[in-house]
Design goal:
It is a single chain. The chain is of the alpha/beta class. Among the domains are: 128-222, Glutamyl-tRNA Synthetase, Domain 3 (Glutamyl-tRNA Synthetase, domain 3); 277-348 and 479-517 and 524-567, Ribosomal Protein L25, Chain P (Beta Barrel); 355-476, Beta Barrel (Ribosomal Protein L25, Chain P), CATH 2.40.240. The protein contains 13 helices and 27 strands. The protein has helices at 2-10, 24-34, 55-70, 89-101, 116-128, 139-145, 163-174, 224-235, 250-260, 283-291, 306-312, 316-326, 337-348, and strands at 42-45, 74-79, 107-111, 132-135, 184-187, 202-206, 220-222, 239-243, 267-271, 274-276, 333-335, 354-355, 357-358, 361-366, 375-380, 390-395, 398-402, 422-425, 430-438, 444-451, 469-470, 473-474, 479-486, 510-517, 529-532, 536-540, 551-556. The protein has a seven-stranded mixed beta sheet with strand order 12-25-26-27-23-24-13. The chain has a seven-stranded mixed beta sheet with strand order 21-18-19-20-14-17-22, with no helix packed on it. A four-stranded antiparallel beta sheet has the order 4-5-6-7. Strand 2, helix 4 (89-101) and strand 3 (107-111) form a beta-alpha-beta unit. Helix 1 (2-10) packs across helix 12 and helix 12 (316-326) crosses helix 13. The chain is elongated and about 105 Å long. Bound molecules: adenosine-5'-triphosphate and magnesium ion (MG). Residues 46-48, 56-57, 59-60, 242-243, 273-274, 281-284 line the site of adenosine-5'-triphosphate.
């Protein structure tokens, strides 16, 4: 399918899958086309505009888009805005942007509310055919009459109302004569059906609510199980791909399209949702975190909304690859978050320059280096990608290095800087630590060393070896920048919720540091990404950066615990 092809084009040899087996959805579609059930393929992505899209939605988008593309069909974006209470225009714009950014080219967008007239007509047809009736029961009574998994339901006292009476009552419902909850329209199916969804489900309810698209035109609104199959059918969707929780609703989906009557009714096929380990994906949870101020918006880089992943520095290609690696199945399971990180690392590895940046700087002074002297070193921007060229970095007597690259009393196997030890300053010189200063709190304020001029370029002059290589930035032209490091919002050990029902938030999920970078990095544009040598991949935060004053957030560290399974 298309998204697998995409990953093949840009994947490294290690991840390439030469033979792509067809997933169960493709097998079903192949069969439908062969049997002449449809002569084209049309899919859709139908979000409710009540929040931002998250990584789980990306699976649905790329699956639906990929299928349409593979079969030279069509892919619709449709806003499921039948519910007038919760929807917001802000979400419509955000969703459109995210779908486009993911690379899914859509027809539309369409709005379910544009079909309200046709849905009303469909309801009238069912009433005329004796397949729907107006009920006076309250919500509680309807629930009580519905029965349970083990007991059949009982017939609604209004079940045998005449067609004329039903038409009259339904019209008066529409005209606003009745209060919310006083009447509903029910499909007349089977109160004894084993599947509870088939026990005369409600298909229209009264709600005197303003709708952001249709205004006050309607005071009756169709229920999801009635509206959704009709939306699909009106648009000519052939394969309505949805997640597993709708499996029990499929008989009702089929009943609606059959009884309203369509020449080529759409067909619902279910697949498993994407769940990530250790990450909150549900819209409901994310909304809670936004509303209670735990995060700085729907695009907070610690979230897994599409907007957050974009702000964090994820690329569409990395997400396409992640979804493609996960595959499509009919069984729910959780995908390792480390796989998502693997995908962005793999994508950026050769694509972005490798630069020097210090997250937590401390001064390094080279006592025997001439004062006032500056040297230039030419370094490749990415040794694995010559096309990225090279740049010049300056070097002088005072540098910055990482605070954690020095230890006064190092443990065994610490090969970086400590009194008496010699290390390599990356691509510059061998230096030997001779002294250091502390303030009254014991914090290291500067480190002193001497350099060996014969080791220029970082090469050993006489075969002598050093075990540690550290990076550095010239203090004279270093630019101060804010650095942000992220950890998961949810503490893995303890689960999503505490015993008292509150969310178990990791208090250390954001660490803000004042770092320094080589001067070129001060010009980084929003969304621009880099590898900071030894520190990971970073992206200029589009919300917090100012011209000439970027704020860098870590996309992902360099080390991975994830190994791609052998194909
Ligand atoms: P959430 O469960 O996060 O609240 P939702 O299902 O309410 O999301 P919708 O806007 O109704 O969000 O979903 C649009 C489409 O995205 C639906 O077809 C739904 O099945 C699909 N979808 C939602 N979550 C996932 C997921 N985790 N994996 C795959 N598809 C998903
Ligand atoms: Mg939903």
């Amino acid at each position: 399918m298309a998204i697998e092809e995409a990953s093949k084009e840009q994947g490294s040899g290690e991840t390439e899958r030469e033979v792509v087996s067809r997933n169960f959805i493709e097998q079903e579609i192949d069969k439908d086309l062969k049997e002449g059930r449809y002569d084209t393929v049309m899919t859709r992505f139908p979000p409710e505009p009540n929040g931002y899209l998250h990584i789980g939605h990306a699976k649905s988008i790329l699956l639906n888009y990929g299928i349409a593309k593979e079969y030279n069909g069509q892919f619709n974006l449709r806003f499921d805005d039948t519910n007038p209470t919760k929807e917001k225009g802000e979400f419509v714009e955000a969703i459109k942007r995210d779908v486009e950014w993911l690379g899914a080219k859509f027809n539309g967008p369409f709005f379910a509310s544009d079909y309200f007239d046709k849905m009303y007509e469909a309801a009238l047809k069912l009433i005329r055919d004796g397949k729907a009736y107006v009920s006076d029961l309250s919500a509680d009574e309807i629930r009580e009459y519905r029965g349970t998994l083990t007991e059949p339901g009982r017939d609604d006292p209004n079940r045998n109302r005449s067609v004329e009476e039903n038409l009259d009552l339904f019209e008066r419902m529409k005209n606003g004569e009745f209060e919310d909850g006083s009447k509903v329209l029910r499909a007349r199916i089977d109160m004894k059906a084993a599947n509870i969804n088939m026990r005369d489900p409600i298909i229209y309810r009264i709600a005197h609510l303003h709708h952001q698209n249709t205004g006050d035109k309607w005071c009756i609104y169709p229920m999801y199980d009635f509206a959704h199959p009709l939306e699909d059918a009106f648009e000519g969707i052939t394969h309505s791909l949805c997640t597993l929780e709708f499996e029990d609703h499929r008989p009702l989906y089929n009943w609606v399209v059959e009884n309203v009557g369509f020449a080529h009714p759409p067909r619902q096929i279910e697949f498993a949702k994407l769940y990530l380990t250790n990450v909150v994906t549900g819209k409901r949870y994310i909304k809670k975190l936004v509303e209670n101020g735990t995060v700085d918006g729907w695009d907070d880089p610690r979230l897994v909304t599409i907007a957050a992943l974009r702000r964090r520095g994820y690329t569409p290609e990395s997400i396409q690859k992640f979804i493609s690696l996960g595959g499509i199945s009919k069984a729910n399971s959780s995908t390792d978050y480390a796989m998502l990180e693997y995908c962005i690392r793999d994508d950026l590895k050769t694509r972005v320059p490798r630069m020097y940046a210090i997250l937590d700087p401390v001064k390094l002074i080279i006592d025997n280096y001439p004062e006032g002297q500056t040297e230039e070193f030419t370094v490749p921007n990415n040794p694995e990608n010559e096309a990225l060229g090279s740049r010049t970095v300056t070097f002088s007597r005072e540098l910055y290095i990482e605070r954690n690259d020095f230890m006064e009393n190092p443990p065994k196997k610490y090969f970086r800087m400590f009194p008496g030890n010699e290390v390599r300053l990356m691509q510059a010189y061998f230096v030997k630590c001779v002294d250091f200063r502390k303030d009254e709190n014991g914090k290291i304020t500067e480190i002193h060393c001497t350099y060996d001029p014969a080791s220029r370029g970082g090469n050993s002059p006489d075969g002598r070896k050093v075990k540690g290589t550290i990076h550095w930035v010239n203090a004279a032209d270093a630019k101060p920048v804010e650095m942000r490091l992220y950890e998961n919002l949810i503490d893995e050990e303890k689960g999503v919720y505490n015993e008292d029902g509150t969310m178990n938030i990791n208090p250390d999920s954001l660490e803000v540091l004042q770092g320094v970078v080589e001067p070129a990095l001060a010009e980084a544009k929003p969304y621009e990404s880099f590898q900071f040598v030894r520190n990971g991949f970073f992206c200029a935060d589009a919300k917090l950066s100012k011209p000439g004053k970027p704020v860098f957030g870590r996309i992902v560290s360099l080390k991975s615990s994830f190994k791609l399974p052998k194909a």
